[in-house]
Amino acid sequence: MALTRYQSPLQGKRLSRLPAGALRAVLREGYTREDFKRDALAGLVVGMVALPLAMALAIGVGVPPQHGLYTAIVAGALVAALGGSRTQVTGPTAAFIVILAPIYARFGLAGLLLSGMLGGLLLIGMGLGRLGQFIEFIPHPVTTGFTAGIGVVIATLQLKDLFGITLAKAPEHYLERVVALWHARGTAAPADLAIGAVTLALLIGVRRLTQRIPAPLVALPAAALLALAVEHIFPGLTVATVARRFHVVVGDRIFQGVPPLPPMPMLPWHAPGPDGKPLVLSFGMIRDLLPGAFAVAMLGGIESLLSAVVADGMAGTRHDPDAELLAQGIGNVVAPFFGGIPATGAIARTATNIRSGGRSPIAAIVHSLTILTAVVALAPLIGYLPMAAMAALLLLIAWNLSEVGHFLHIARVAPRSDTLVLLTCFGLTVIFDMVVAVSAGIVLAALLFMRRMAELTKVSLVGGSRDSDNDDAAKDEVGATALATDLPKGVVIYEIAGPLFFGAAQKATSQLTETGSRTKALIIRLDHVPAMDATGLVALESSLAQLRKTGCQVILCGLQRQPAGLLARAKISEASGKVSVRPDLPAAIARAREIVGAPAAHAGDPTTATGPLRPG
Fold this sequence. Notes:
Blueprint: H1 21-29, H2 33-61, H3 66-82, E1 90-91, H4 97-128, H5 140-163, H6 174-183, H7 190-209, H8 215-233, H9 242-245, E2 247-250, E3 253-256, H10 283-315, H11 321-334, E4 344-345, H12 347-355, H13 361-382, H14 387-402, H15 404-413, H16 416-431, H17 434-456, E5 458-463, H18 471-474, E6 491-497, H19 505-509, H20 512-516, E7 521-528, H21 534-550, E8 553-557, H22 561-569, E9 580-582, H23 585-596
Parallel strand pairs: 6-7, 7-8, 8-9
Antiparallel strand pairs: 1-4, 2-3, 5-6
Helix pairs in contact: 2-3, 2-4, 2-12, 2-13, 2-14, 3-11, 3-13, 4-10, 4-11, 5-6, 5-14, 5-15, 5-16, 5-17, 7-8, 7-14, 10-11, 10-12, 15-16, 16-17
């Protein structure tokens, strides 16, 4: 999952927010036989690429490989048909492994399927609530940090099968798992490691030699043939394969590896729990599953929308984020009833689809049908794939996901605050989980953003005081340079520049009371305050109340529309008698002259200008 941000060219028509918005738009524009041929070919290519990936990702979670295939078949077709992106391909993804593996270890397959279904319901709510646009508010260091952390965790999880290590029990937490792997290092199988190394070399080599042939389609069959050759040459040697690791009972038949059957309807809670028995549905069980479901929804929403943005940049289209969230939710609700685990938009498969000529949701639907055909027709052959080869494939995916070069570049050139967010999200993802990392990262980024915004809010003072004829003694330069104006004795201009919100309100108003106690008339200039929130309003009201006690009269000027409306609702107006309100600085200075009894400015003086009372 490469979460690099792309700018959409905003080409194409805006899609309907209803389900099947992308498909409706394609059919409305005219879908020809040639279009279908291109989409069918692209779907066939993506299906062949997705077949081993779906199995490997399911194995990475800990479940039998057919559940990854069922996910790509059911969720892949549903989301494509109902979604808001023309070219997105949906299925199991590597990023989900770090979330789903602990859920499976704790609650079994039934808990995993229920978590996906609950996560799907949350995604539907997000889509109906029009929350798709809020993906833009997740800071880049947060996404880069947690995806790099996910890459590290996935890579670590693959060491067991890559080295052929036997673990009595796989611990749930990362550090404990690393310790367990180290203690079990003596059980490593050299044959598995050799096959894994050869597979990894083939994956990298084929990818560098040509982009026309998907590397897994060369590397994985070669690994299977190599495993058969090793076992033939060394009769006592056994290589761990999909068929030897997994089996499934259907009726009175036992299938080794992947059963040659399409996804069959089932009730998710009737699947095996952690003790092998079906789960008992209860409010307590749902409550225990909600944190995992929330993580599924969060990551599913983030990854699917970022993948859709990447697709827009490659294909020159425009997706509907709310329709896409709604479709992802429906797909994740329905898939568990066919044995499917959580799914989301897959960036690598989406990119393959576009490069292969796919231009409509039909291509992604054909991709699902391709996988379905392969499951029914080629299931016995799939069982020969070595587990070490699947681990090598996931290891390469983890490397691509972590984007090491991009991570180091951000850490090197970004501001210190962004680097702190990046490293925090990375560390929390590895040590704890993605939910903790994203939550902490967003909160930390928000706090740092508020500090930056507060630094942009400046105050400036200029004017005379009651006790001194020396204007210079009353000047207290804090931020921006105040307007240089000849003011009468006892008048001070207090200028605030920048948003007056909770992060900057105290700083902006801290000197108002002290300044007003030395003056008869205080002009508060708000020309450059574009917005004010409740905290800014309360701070201003408190300062005005203190100023009234000192006998200082306050004049507000230059109010922009939003602050003017807020003050009006708070009944801080000319009519309230609390303040004087003037439209601009010249009118405010004229009012201040009246208050201190100074003579009116001579003709031509800019301070004689007046105007209607209105927000600036």
